[in-house]
Predict the structure.
Amino acid sequence: MKAVQIGAGLVGSIIAADMGRSFDVTVVDINENALTSIRKDHPKITTAVCSCTDPVCLSPLIRDADIVTAGVPGKFGRKMMETVIRAGKNMADISFMPEDFEELDGLAKEYGVTAVPDIGVAPGMSNFLIGRGASMLDEVENAVIYVGGIPHRQVPPFNYQITWSAADVIEEYTRPARYVKDYKPVVCEAMGELYEKEFPNAGLLETFITDGLRSLVKNIKSKNMEERTLRWPGHVAQMRLLREMGLFDEEKRDLGGVEIVPRDIACDLLFPMWKMEPEKGDRDLTIMQVEVSGYKGRDFVTYTWDLWDIFDEKTWKNSMGRCTGFSCSIFAQAIVKGLIKEKGVIAPEKLAASDELYNFVMTEQRSRGIDYKESVRINRNVR
């Protein structure tokens, strides 16, 4: 069977390699250097130079595919997905488009396509597990996602490292965050509602609300719901200081007759200090805890999933890339196996009620070393 992966970045290469265990894979990207790197690491994978926003180029490349996976910059995601849908191809995607992907639901149904978007780790598995917990309750009181990619040890001065762009991180630190309180959407400032919490294997971390709920806001009925990002203690105070100084501003400023954008300067200065360098001993952790609680009959039930994952020494792949890429690959393979039969653009949380799909996903995750540990607490006869 044939698969096409659109996007040859860090996570795209992980998706392609994982799909390559069961499919003949072609990777498509506009960057020839990225494709060369994939061919070097995976000689059986074929590649093609093409822009993901060019339907004339892309459509013939996916014509014979049994499944398409994708991971492209978010600003290109909608147009890319529309091209794949119009080609009549099922897909799993991690592109995190800024638009509402469910606007393409009607088009996908028209073409008889199954498309699962936002299917990385968070969003992705976080949505799936929130949906799973909600499907097992009569009423959802609280749904919380704690998630973060952090260095395996505190690394001064910021106790933080990244495997992606500093600009994306700063966007998370400046964009107002949506959450749900008393069934109503609420907006707070970025890095708001800060507190510390203990997590298995990691210890004490600080948590703050970020704008990661996306489709969950309209698809899951919960009295309270929020996503919280995790960092080593002290990081948020530093970032708030830089933000208040104006270093994260996007408005141009005149500096000695030269126009500068403060955020560009901040990215340029911070990226070398934040860059994870495995060859120097740096390792990343992915930590996620998803908790869904509410009523089942007269009982109050809490479902919890805990993930703790670290850089893979054998494959030399970072944890966040593996957790993200494997999820996309697993859901793509679930589509091919007929475990996802619905047509349309389907948010992950809408698929979680299926025991067959849930068991397949969790088994496949564990087979790749990604272990979401599930636990249940029940308070009997509370109402």
About this structure: The domain at 2-120+321-370 is CATH 3.40.50.720 (Rossmann fold). Residues 82 and 228 are 31 Å apart (CA to CA). The mean pLDDT is 96.
